[in-house]
Structure formats: C-alpha cells, structure tokens
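User: Batch of two.

Assistant: Item 1 of 2:
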Amino acid sequence: MKLRSYKPRVKICCISGVAEAQMAIECGADALGLVSQMPSGPGVISDEVIAKIADIVPPTVATFLLTCRQDAESIIQQQRQSRVNTLQLCDRVDEKCYRELRKNLPGISLVQVVHVTGPESFDESLRIAPQVDAILLDSGNQNLAIKELGGTGRRHDWAISRQICDAVNVPVFLAGGLNSENVQLAMRAVGSFGLDVCSGVRSNGLLDKSKLINFLAAIHDSQMIREANATKLPSSY
C-alpha cells in the first residue's frame, strides 16, 4: 500500500446563512453544502437563502445544492434559481435524469450520494460513477418509511468506502459522523478525495468556529496517509 501525505478537500455542510458561509470560507473550507427541502435531517434552508449564500461565495469555493428531487425538470429549475455550481443528488435518479442535467446545465458538476448500507453500495457506486463528476458516501437509508438522505451524524462501514474509492474513476467524498477526533483515522482508512462534515463542527446546531478550526487542524497535522484518489481530480473542484 503506497503512502504519502495528502490534503483532502473539505466540504462544510448544512450552512444556515451568509454568516456561517463566511466563517467556513475564512477558516479554509473548499466547499459549502446548502440543504434544500428534505424528508428528514438537519440544516434545511429556503431556496432564496441558498441563492443569497451562493452569490457571496468566491469562485474558488464550490457551492453544493443538496436536493432530494428525482426529476430533471425540477432539479434544473432549482439550480437556476439558486445559481450554485454543484448539484448533490441525495436520492437515486435514473440515467435519463443524468442525461437531461448534463444537456441543460453545462458546467454544473454532478455529485451523486450513495448511502452505504452494505456490500450492495459498492455495486451501486460502480453503476453510478460513469454518470457523475463525483460520488459522496453517506450514512442515510432511502428504504425507510421516512427517507434518511444524510445528516445522520452516524459512521458507516469505512471498509466498504475504501473499496469504492479504489474501484471508481471519479473523486469520492466521505461523509457521516466525522469530527476532529476521528478524521485522521478516516483519512488513513478510506483515503477519499474529500471529506464532508456537518454535526462534527457544530454546537447546538450552529457552526462552531473552534470545532471547525480543530477539525481542519487535525487534517493538516496528519502525515503519511494512504494514497487517495486525488489523481481523479476534476477542475471544477
């Protein structure tokens, strides 16, 4: 196993407003997660607030719109209203939807969430990878009566996540229960291109600057990490 030092891209999710966005950017976030209407989970804000945040974010920072919509027409409308540069598809969509998004939203990155529930998530990732710019591995469950599409604060099986990172030809983000105490372990175990954190940098639901600084410091301090799929880096990230 080849080892080297690497710095994963960091996405701070569940940004609630302009002030939190500015704090995350000042601390060194590479991407911001902006959560639109979801069946469950934290951090939901209106499309109007998402647009206000996207307008103040510098071009060097990616803006991810988290959407649970599954039809291309409404996803396209949502992106055009919010003006984000990345769509994070939190539920499953069909191949026709991917084609329509590509056709109608040139230059907008597509990131598909795969909720890691077992070995079947490996096969799902292999099927999806050719359709998208990146995959985000999270700990939700689409099969529940009320779907969990992220924001659970739970870890999933990182051994499966590592297998996915090794197998697909697109960048992979790791989400689910990350914090300053386990992020170095996650980097070593999974070696993902990016890390996605929400509850691990919050206190009482609010972005906590000290926790955010500690999380980023833990990443910067880590040495000799398993080689990540950073060679699969698209220019949009």
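Item 2 of 2:
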Amino acid sequence: MLVRDWMSKHVITIAANDNMQRAIDLMMDHHISMLPVTVQGKLIGIVTDRDLRRAAPSDVAVLEVKQILYHLGRVEIQAIMSVDLITVPQNFTVDETAQVLLKHKISGCPVVDDTGALVGVITRNDLFKAMISLSGAPQLGIQFGFLLEDRPGSLQELVDVIRDHNARLVSIMSTYDHAPPGFRYTYLRVFSVDRQRLVQLKEKLREKAEILYIVDHREKTREVYAAPINSGRPLPEAKEL
C-alpha cells in the first residue's frame, strides 16, 4: 500500500510572508494541525499548531485583545516555521511512512514526487485508515490469533482448514516480534463463516496451531485464552463484548 493512494491530495498551504493569524484561521477552518509553507509553489518549510503555540505571547492572559491580534498579525510564518523538512516520497509504503513519523515523533508530513514537488500530505489518521483497510476490519467477520510454528507449510495448513469450511480470507498478518524461538504470531480475518460449523472449524484449527484468541465482530463475542489451547483444557464460553 503506497502513500500516494492514502495521502490527502488537496493540500492547504500557506505563504512564507503570511502571518500567524492567517495560519490559525486556516487550521481552524480546515481542522488541520500542519501547514506546508510555499514560495511560488515550492515547499520551503512547515508550520504546525505547536509552532504557533510557541510563538504566541507568553503573557497572553494579561494582554488585551487588540495587543494579541496585533502580535498575531505582525509575526510572519517564515519567522516561526520549521525549515528542517521531513518529507516522504509518494511511492513510500504506508509502513515505511509510519516508521518516519514514529522516529521523528511527528503527526504528519508533506509528500513529494520525484522532483521534490509537493503532491500531498500524510497524517497518522491517514495511516490508521490504511491499516484498518489492510486488516480487513470493515468486513467484520472473525479474527483468529495464533502462535504458529515457523516451518514451511504451517500457514497453508490453516488456510486449507478455513477453505475446507467454505469461509473466505480477508487478511493475513504475521510477525516474529516477541514470539518464542521457532514460532511466529499470525492473525487471520475471515468472513462468510457458517456459525453452525464454527465449533468444528475451531477444533480443526486447534490441530494445526495454538489459538490465542477468537473475536467474532459480527456476533460481538470474543474468546481470549490465558492458557495454551493445546494443553487439552476445554474451550471457554464465548463472552459478550
């Protein structure tokens, strides 16, 4: 999933010689917290709501309205903007972009093309939407969490069980983070599940891997297992969300 497919392409920008009041108005009108700063269409900086707060009078509580407005109208954006630009290419993946935002502790950044021209803005909210779409969450269905043995064919065995029960896979996600040696965590989201065959499906899946949890988003139930499923202990009753 590439940034160009999830970024905001309608970019609200501000000129370097505009003032703080103009920036505040734009942010409030468009419900945004970041403005790329441009000169003749060229990206030269960025101003955020944090920059505006830092530049606001420290004794604002004791100032008169006219004094505040005078200050806001006098200070130009080029005096408070950040010029050490953090941008991402439009062909970055969403996970690469998430790493950039996390590394620099920022909520969003401009997106540029191969020539460095501004083509969009990507924010954490945009990334959340992308990850939700990638996970298949809008499809509801059932999500299974597994501790899966890391060997060739182990994932295919789970997929085969699901297909044998005429269910459809929406997404497959897997990670080695925090997994015991020789294992990985795997998460499958499925839909079109015949609930009358769900118990049988769970039992067949248990034969292939340790189930960590089962969340049925349509029926609003979840089963979270505190003890290993393969220990022979009975499945707990599903609980209402």
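Confidence is low (pLDDT under 50) at residues 59-63, 228-241.
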